[in-house]
C-alpha cells in the first residue's frame, strides 16, 4: 500500500514537471504514526542534511519500522552525486529497527505529456519497468543515514516528543503529518 502511494505521488509530481520529494513514513506495531516530506532543499550539503533530518520524526515517534522513498536522479543531483547512470527510478526502502532493510527500485521511462503545466514546466508520464529488489545493499549516503538515525537517535529526540518535533520540522519547511503517535494499547489478557 505504501509503495502504491509513493508511485501515485511520484506520477502526480511528474505530471507537473517535478519529482516526488524524499519522504519518510514512520510505523509502530504495523500502524502508520507519521509521514514527512523534505523541506525545500539547496543543492549539496543542505540537501543531504534535509534528507537525513527526516529521521527526527521517526526517532521522536519511537518507530519500529520506516519507509523511505525518493527519486534516484533528483536526489543525486540535489546531493551533488554524479549521475553515473542517469536512469530514473523511484526508490522505496523499508527498514526495521533490527538493521535489516529491503530496497526496491522502480525504474521508469518518462514520456512527455502535451503542453506545459501551469508552472511552465514540461509534464511527464512514467512507463514503469520491472522492479529491482535487493536486501541490505548500500544506498545513497543521506538516505542510509536517515534510515539509521531513525532508530539510533531515539534517546536524544524522544524526550521532546513527536508533537514538538513536528512543530520544529514544520517551522523549517518540512511537510509533516502526525497520524497517531500514541503508544499501542496492550492486548487484553496480556500482563
Key structural traits:
191 residues, alpha+beta, 33% helix
Overview of this protein structure:
The chain has 191 residues and is α+β, with helices and mostly antiparallel strands. It contains seven helices and eight strands; from the N terminus they run αββααβαββββαααβ. The protein has helices at residues 2-15, 45-52, 55-60, 72-79, 141-152, 154-157, 161-171; strands at residues 23-28, 31-37, 65-71, 89-96, 101-116, 122-128, 132-135, 175-178. Strands 1, 2, 3, 4, 5, 6, 7 and 8 form an eight-stranded antiparallel beta sheet that branches. A hairpin with a 2-residue loop joins strand 1 and strand 2. The longest helix has 14 residues, at 2-15. The radius of gyration is 17 Å and the shape is globular.
- Bin the strand percentage: 25-35%
User: Treating each run of at least 4 consecutive H or I residues as one helix, how many helices?
Assistant: 7
* Major beta sheet summary: 8 strands, antiparallel
Structural class: alpha+beta
Mean pLDDT: 89
Question: End-to-end distance, in Å?
Answer: 33 Å
**Uncertain regions: pLDDT < 50 for 5+ in a row?**
none
Q: Could you state the order of secondary-structure elements as H and E?
A: HEEHHEHEEEEHHHE
| Helix share, percent | 25-40%
Cα gyration radius (Å): 17 Å
Number of strands: 8
Shape: globular
